Structure formats: structure tokens, C-alpha cells
Amino acid sequence: MKFFNQRNAFYDRLEGNQLSSSAISLWYALMYTNDKAGWTDEFSVAASVLSLRAGVSVRTLSTARNELKQKGLIDFKSRKGNQAAIYTILDLCANIARNPSDNASNKRSDNASDSPSTLLQENREEEKRKEGEDVRENSFTFYEKNFGVLNPFISESIGKWCDDLTDEHVVEALEITLKNNKNSFRYAEAILREWQSLNLLTIEDVRTHESHKNQGRKGKARPKSNGNVAQFSDYSKYNLPF
User: Fold this and answer.
1) Range of the domain at 116
2) In angstroms, how far is CA 29 from the centroid of its own chain?
3) How many domains does the chain have?
């Protein structure tokens, strides 16, 4: 099983099967563990170790583990006593989930006799479905494409910021990090902390704030921040290699 092929297949699967951030972090932690074990069909790891690597509590680990199994991404066997569970990471490359849009296309072809108004309604419903889908994986994908392999710690941090702010905020912070020629997630986190402290809840507020910073117009009005005064932080000290 090749790591990068498996990872790409994992993201293909996410397009039609949403996962919680905890489940995503756990999947990466299991991939890391299996890599250290030499990519065996089955491997065991203590819940405490897996919890640490995934950055989640043991209780959350149990929920995320069941979620991954239900989605057909892993399998595991619990054992009696204090013995660690045995895990199997299912090979996604051999059975990549079909894109949901393909199913929609097939349904339309099967109902070719439907009236134009019916087909138009189906198209509108499909567009609404796509607009309403959770796009959280975009921030994870963006990080991997531009920064490198996503380890469990950063994966959990990204999920946390998606919950505290939005996926758009995370991607925006990562883009600013790249524009400033930095390659550290700590740098992006410093940006996110500032936005959170200033209560910049929309991307429009964020971009206005960043525009004022770039222009250096200290006398200009800035986005509302619940009484907080916008401070133009210097993020450069956060350019650490992780």
C-alpha cells in the first residue's frame, strides 16, 4: 500500500462521505502507526498511544474509530483485558468511491423520458446539495498541497480552527502564510488567533482588516471587534518548522 496513493484515495472518498475532524486525525494517526510497523496487514497499538498521536481523548477516539469503520476506511478487533485492539487499514486504492455526481448523472439517464421541468428541478436540487456539502476537507487538502504531509497534530489543530472559526478562515490564513513566504502552520495559527480575538467572523471582515494592515492606514476605520482595538501583529516570530 503506497502512502500517497492511499492518501489521495482517502480524499476522493471524502468528496462523497463526510468525516468529523477527529476521524480524519485518527485515520492519519493509524496511517503513521502502520508506516512505523512496516505496512503490515494487521497491527496493534494502545489506545493511549493512538489518542496521543491523533490529539483526541480516549472517549473521542472510540467514537472516531467506529466512524471510520462504518465508512469502510478501517477495520479493528477489540481484545479482552488490557490488550490493544488489532487494526487493519483498508486499501482504498482498489475500491475508490464513485463521485456522487456520477450517481446523479446515471439517475438522469435512467429517466430520460422525464419532462424538461423535472430535469431542471433535479439540476437545481443537485446544485443545492453541492452548495450545502461540508467543505472542511478543503483546508486539509490545501495544507497538503502547499505545505506537505499532514501529521496528526496539525490535522487536529486545523479541525479545531474550523470549529472555532470556519474552513474559509483557515484557508485564508494559510494563503497569507504562503504570500509572506513562510511555511509554518504556527505562523498561520498566529493569524487565526488575531482574527478570533478581534471577532472577525466573516471573510469580508478578515480581508478588510488585512488590507488595512498592508496599507498601513492607522487612521482608517477597521472592522468591528466587540471593543477590541485591532493590533497589527508581527507574525514573523511564528515561522517555526511545524
Assistant:
1) 100-132
2) 14
3) 3
Q: In terms of DSSP H, where are the helices of the chain?
A: 3-14, 21-36, 47-54, 58-70, 100-110, 116-132, 137-146, 152-164, 167-179, 185-197, 203-215
Regarding whether 81 and 57 lie in a shared domain, the answer is yes
Gap between the Cα atoms of 100 and 167, Å rounded: 22
Record the cell numbers describing residue 117, joined without a space: 421541468
Q: What is the dihedral of CA 192, 193, 195, 200, to 10 degrees?
A: 100
User: Grid cell 493509524 — which residue?
Assistant: 30
CATH number for the domain spanning 61: value is 1.10.10.10
Q: Please check whether residues 67 and 12 belong to one and the same domain.
A: yes
Query: For residue 179, how many other CB atoms are within 10 A of its CB?
Result: 9
Cell triple for 27 = 485515520
pLDDT averaged per 10 residues in sequence order, the chain, 242 residues: 78 84 90 86 90 85 90 90 89 62 45 46 51 54 84 82 87 92 91 93 90 70 47 50 46
Q: Is the pTM of this model over 0.85?
A: no
Taking CA atoms, 170 is separated from 101, 134, 226, in Å, by: 27, 14, 22
